[in-house]
Amino acid sequence: MTALEKSAILTNIKDRKLVVSPILSGNQIGASSIDLRLGNVFLMVRARGLSHVDPKQFAHSAKSTADDHEFEQAKRQKHERHEAPFGQRFLVHPGMLVLVPTLEWVKLPDNLQGTVTARSCWAREGLSIATASLIHPGYAGIITLELANLGQIPLGLYPGLRIAQIAFHELTGPASRKDMGSRFHMAFEPIEGNVSKGDEVFLGPDSRS
Amino acid sequence: MNPKEFLLHECRNVRSALREVLRHDYSAGSSKDFYTEFCERLDFLESLLKPVDPTDIRMLETFADEVSMLSMFVHQIERSHSGEFPWPFTEYLTELATPLCKENLTQNEGKPIIRVYAEGGLYSYKINLEADLSVLNVGRRIFTIVFPRTLKHHVLLHAIFGHEVGHAAWTIPKHNSDLRGKVLGPLRSAGPLTSTSQATHWLRNAEAPAEIEDLRKQYEAEPIYTVVDTTQLSYWFQEFMCDLFGLVTFGPSFIAAHKTLLLALDPTGHRWGPEHPPYICRRAMLWRACQHLGWNDYVKAVKDTQLRSDLQTFLETYLGSNAPGEWEDVFTSGQIATALDALKAILESVGCPPYALPDETTLLPLVRMLSDGIPPCGSDLSGTVKPANRKVDFRHILFGGWVVAEKPAARESDGEEDEEEKDQFLQINKLCELGLLQQRAIDMHPAGKKE
Amino acid sequence: MTLLSMYKRDDSRNVYRILADQAVKYIDHPTGGSEARILFTNLSRLLERYRYDAFFSHGAPGILEVFSKEHRAQHADRAEPTPKTLDVIPALEKAHETVYKTLSKDDLVQRLQELLVTLAENQAPGESHPNNEIKNARLFFVTLAETLDERRT
């Protein structure tokens, strides 16, 4: 897998194979990555929302409206959602995990994969992107960042700040269409994942599916 | 507790509720304005109420109304926290409308305080600028923008606010005078609606479409629908005027939103009421207005064949290709042209230029971005070292959205989409909503920006 | 319910009588502050309406609100400016005629608004306005208040 350097990144953008939009300034484009900015939605886990994360909650197959209500309520109450216009600060306290979108819309061709990491200046303040996010080929949408404050003091975040960076790696061959998921899935804001998808068989005999 | 004591007690309750309102998040810096304003209103009210004789019923009645209005406003402000309405669109709308709604008072008092909230129901689109004559204690007026909650993301439909801006402008005395004289004057000078008796006769006219005749028969028992009085005619003309307002402030997006929303609520297009004329008359007026504004020539001049075809489709869908029928064609081209020119002059006089159709080099990239599933904005996608992003009028983004919304779905289903992903109209709206947010960032950022 | 679907009594006559009375008190004893500002802002608004003859009814419904059955039921008998609102107009005309007969509406409003701004900004009006101007303004508001009071009875 080859990492793309600056001119290769720009060539892919110029050829409309790769989209990162908008790039507000030239200094966002580094030697082998593009800086990404914070979007304006913050999803944080509500401490009083759930007692614990149980994969069985995700293994949902609604058998009734009551069933559906329980599932939807648990899903919606798990996170608090805050929308912050430009100029408004959001504090990330020590130990807090918050899901945020990037300002940029990213679209990858079927032969490129993206890797997202935190910018080192923020990492030194204690801000971590909890996992090195892998953006699969064919992806289209904002990128969800899982931000965690590993420091001792709260961090003030403002929409628009450069917070992460994305590097691009060329695959040995184009990804197959069926491996990339629906062509029409476009991510507009962070949503929670499904930790049990495909693994329901391991959740015990009384799992919902 | 006597009435005066109760009213003073309620003033204290309102003050307490005002403090509670500060628990929520509002857009940056905005809570200070309304907090200060309402504290001052309460101070003023209490200073007048305290010396009132507890037996002075007339005064107490007046103050009961004032306290009630304050309480209602504070409650509405409590609902205006971020998250339930599209704030990038709101910021653009506010920039558009504020110069029009500035009062001729002292520097600070003239500027309204903007509040936004979401309300349930399709009918909820509304702008209200405090304009009640009988209010005692208003410093800066509250300018309230109301969105239907379920249509939060539907920025293409929000172009309907152009009509509502017209209602807000009506409440500024100088604009009211100009609108009555220079816009409504020409519209009322000729045609079948020049007087109440002529308007009543027009409704009963044998030339009226069969649908009108059927509705008149349904309404026979309700004179309010079959006899046009002065008030009704006045409201009808305000609606016509505000439709023209929508056209000159939002352009083609307004036409599309207008048809989509009004026909959703009245699919016949023929219903009228004490406060609104039949849709077909409004469309006829807008058809002529667009002729005067040269939209057909604009489309013909587009060089890109696909874009030209898309624009043609857009015009045919939302305006129709044929001239309006005779009955509903209540204004001449001359009347509309005079009214439009006066309206544009009013906008220009307050530094609010009327909407100008985008040139091809602006519109085409927006349409292409949308067709490629990319949020449309002035983003430079050319892959240069120093991106040269452009300032793009937010209304061009909406226009581009409507053009693409009318195209058949470019992509076949692969069977894996969920319901939201299949909904092309929703997807285009969401892309445009995100485009507006990104355009806001482009407008704010100094680097590499060009007009 | 949206704002204007709520019922409110029209109390223009009483409201402007109160404000006119307060204006006289403030001219006699200028104290400034936010209360003065609100008082004179509301009077300035009234004068603006008088200048442009803009005594319209309270605002129209939203563009889609008119299709709502609930709205139609509540507002079947809406009217243009109510009698109490219209009472304010002849009261203003009488005060205009009594005190500033030779001035046009524009000049009257301009002159009064300048004085109101001075008072609202807690400046002693005598520093920037001659005595007879202050006297005339006072008489204007006295006449306005008295006429509005008479029209009630």
Helicity of chain A, in percent?
A: 10-25%
Largest sheet of chain A: 6 strands, antiparallel
The overall strand count of chain A is 13
CATH class of chain A: Mainly Beta
* Radius of gyration over C-alpha positions of chain A, nearest whole angstrom: 19 Å
Terminal Cα span of chain B? 65 Å
Distance between the termini of chain A: 38 Å
Total of helices of chain B: 19
Structural class of chain A: alpha+beta
Helical/strand content category of chain B: mainly alpha
Topology pattern of chain B, helix = H, strand = E: HHHHEEEHHHHHHHHHHHHEHHHE
Widest sheet, order of strands of chain B: 1-3-2
Q: Could you tell me the mean pLDDT of chain B?
A: 89
Average pLDDT of chain A works out at: 85
Unreliable spans of chain A are none
CATH superfamily of chain A: Deoxyuridine triphosphatase (dUTPase)
Element-level helix/strand string of chain A? EHEEEHHEEEEHEEEEE
What oligomeric state best describes the polypeptide chains here? heterotrimer
Morphology call of chain A: globular
Question: How would the blueprint of this fold be written?
Answer:
The complex is a heterotrimer of chains A (209), B (451) and C (153).
Chain A: E1 2-3, H1 6-14, E2 19-21, E3 34-37, E4 41-45, H2 55-58, H3 65-77, E5 79-83, E6 90-92, E7 97-107, E8 112-118, H4 120-123, E9 127-129, E10 133-135, E11 140-149, E12 155-157, E13 162-170
Antiparallel strand pairs in A: 1-13, 2-7, 3-13, 4-5, 4-7, 6-12, 7-11, 8-10, 8-13, 9-11
Chain B: H1 3-21, H2 31-49, H3 57-78, H4 87-97, E1 113-119, E2 126-129, E3 142-148, H5 161-170, H6 173-188, H7 196-203, H8 210-218, H9 223-226, H10 230-250, H11 252-265, H12 279-293, H13 295-300, H14 305-318, H15 333-349, H16 360-371, E4 389-390, H17 394-405, H18 419-422, H19 424-444, E5 449-450
Chain C: H1 12-28, H2 33-52, H3 69-74, H4 83-99, H5 105-120, H6 131-152
Helix pairs in contact in C: 1-2, 1-6, 2-5, 4-6
